[in-house]
Amino acid sequence: MFKINELFSRLALLLILALGFPTLLLAEPLQIKIGFIAWHPDQGAVLSNLLPEPEDRGFKGAELGLKDNNTTGRFLKQQYSLKTALAEDPEQVSAIAGQWLDQGIKLLIADLPAAQLNQLTTLATEHQALVLNAGSYDNDIRTSQCLPNTLHTLPSRAMLTDALGQWSSARRLRDWLLIKGQQPEDIAYADALKRSAKRFGINIVADKTWDFDTDLRRTAQSELPLFTQTDEYDLVVLADERGDFGEYVMFNTWYPRPVAGTQGLTPVAWHRVVEQWGAAQLQSRFGKLSQRWMNNKDYAAWLAMRAIGEAVTQSKTNDAQQLFNFMLSDSFQLAGFKGRKLNFRPWSGQLRQPIPLVQPRSLVSQPPLEGFLHPVTELDTLGFDKPESACTASFQS
To answer: What is the DSSP letter of 265?
Structure first.
């Protein structure tokens, strides 16, 4: 009897396959067209002469995400394609994006400064398109300049500095010396540091601006000790996003204290020293693709591609508005190799994620840390919580 039943089961399975397989073969693949656009402003001369960021930053992350999406999509009759462009000037951004939108590309990933991102989202809204921000850390676009049709996979500056604030508070390093540069990005980072200090009960003993143009390669040992001579501090925090002076502060302060912020112990979206939770496998695949390490912008672009892929897989559509709504829903979860599932905040459209604190050769910590509680998720202890933002993520058409 068992053999007869087993025979009938196998015959039934073969019949189902025979009837259904031709239909699967004839079905047209779902086409998911994505565009990645970037503009890299000229940073000018940097005093520290550090190695410049790779020109293909972000692009290689998007390319790896495309490969991952198509690996899964091949079995689900989904076909992902990617167009990329590096604009030569900010005016070219709108021209390229407009051409793509006219061609029916309604899913855009952007590595752009906040001003150009704002222009892109205005254009995308007119075409009922979705934008994923993988390039701007700006706090305002997540709190007051509420961008429609936009989600953020790159952390905000507030998320980075809150991670540092949690670690500093947990280690009882409660007195900071803040040193900032003169660039607008430095001032924005310093403002984020001040907010985090207030949030976690940290005292800033002095707030200094580095406004010298001397060559610190020759004079750091004589200039920096005097510059950092002030009331005693536990930690020196730097706001020097370009790298004009920050690399020379370590080991040259008046008091022998650790250095953190944009240099020293640094909060990042991603770094080559992140290897836990399967991250080593991601690092290896990226290295084979690009012959270099994955950086913040690569990781944010990869996350954006994977967020699209995950949403398409679950919702079985390529419609921009439906994908936007699904990504903001409780059903959406994204594996980001950071030890927990990631999802988007419904008010700002920011992807919740842990923030690695790294030094050049090791991972020191990965906030949110134990003891910093939140009624919804500890990930919302990093960056602007719902009451702190005037935004509500929305798709306008």
So the answer is: B
